[in-house]
Automatic annotation (TrEMBL):
Source organism per UniProt: Crocodylus porosus (Saltwater crocodile)
Transmembrane stretches, start-end: 62-79, 120-138, 150-168, 180-199
GO biological process, one term: protein retention in ER lumen
High-level lineage: Eukaryota, Metazoa, Chordata, Craniata, Vertebrata
Keywords: Cytoplasmic vesicle, Endoplasmic reticulum, ER-Golgi transport, Membrane, Protein transport, Receptor, Transmembrane, Transmembrane helix, Transport
Primary localisation category: membrane
Name listed for the protein in its UniProt record: ER lumen protein-retaining receptor
Membrane topology designation: Multi-pass membrane protein
Family (UniProt): Belongs to the ERD2 family.
Gene Ontology terms, MF aspect: KDEL sequence binding
Gene coding for it: KDELR3
Length: 241
């Protein structure tokens, strides 16, 4: 295991902890997309089914269990304990626009046509777009709390570090996973505009309002592309059926 992967895992875990601490301390999940958290829980569930039949290392097993627990605790807090504080009106992204094309693609493009492999591939594709409901929510409201921006920053950092991890593994182990790499690059691209604003301009007064026009335009363009693709996929599926 190399340092880029370890740092990536730490950044990922830190992002989740930041989100959980924010919800718990404020007793509110305002500004947080529950739909994105549902998608992340689905990502971890379908990816870590090998917990029951494959042992790689203690580190690997512990991290998988932690991510699963944190994902479901987050979903519980948003839709259970603090559901009255959730912003369902602005958390309105239609998940079928992501689930339909991701499901279809996981059947068409995978390493082997087995149940576990298809579910693993599904998790990789889904993770690349799971943050879109959160970005859509920010673009819709035009604001985000500072703590939420930190959460997004560390998620983006996790993906960037994993790209470095893949480069390292390619040169040191001659290992290359096209599905994981391409999906990871796509996911990182979604964070690029956010990274630019976070690093170069900051988020004064814990709000994104002064930058919302620039960010909203970029996110909206991405979302329209995703929606168009999903609608086309659904239309093709109906014709086949």
């Amino acid at each position: 295991m190399n340092v880029f992967r370890i740092l990536g895992d730490i950044s990922h875990l830190l992002a989740i902890i930041i989100l959980l601490v924010k919800i718990w301390k404020s007793k509110s999940c305002a500004g947080i997309s529950g739909k994105s958290q549902i998608l992340f829980a689905l990502v971890f569930t379908t990816r870590y089914l090998d917990l029951f039949n494959t042992f790689i290392s203690i580190y690997n097993t512990v991290m998988k269990v932690i991510f699963l627990l944190c994902a479901y605790i987050t979903v519980y807090m948003i839709y259970g304990k603090f559901r009255k504080t959730s912003d369902s009106e602005n958390d309105s992204f239609r998940l079928e626009f992501l689930l339909v094309p991701v499901t279809g693609l996981s059947f068409l493009e995978n390493h082997s046509f087995t149940a576990l492999e298809i579910l693993w591939t599904f998790s990789i594709y889904l993770e690349s777009v799971a943050i879109l409901p959160q970005l859509f929510m920010i673009s819709k409201t035009g604001e985000a709390e500072t703590i939420t921006t930190h959460y997004l920053f560390f998620l983006g950092l996790y993906r960037a570090l994993y790209i470095a991890n893949w480069i390292w593994r390619y040169y040191t182990e001659n290992f290359y996973d096209q599905i994981a790499v391409v999906s990871g690059v796509v996911q990182t691209i979604f964070y690029c505009d956010f990274f630019y604003l976070y690093v170069t301009k900051g988020f004064e007064h814990s709000k994104l309002k002064e930058k919302k026009n620039h960010m909203s335009l970029s996110i909206s363009n991405w979302l329209e592309t995703i929606k168009s693709t999903a609608q086309a996929s659904a239309a093709v599926a109906k014709e086949v059926i």
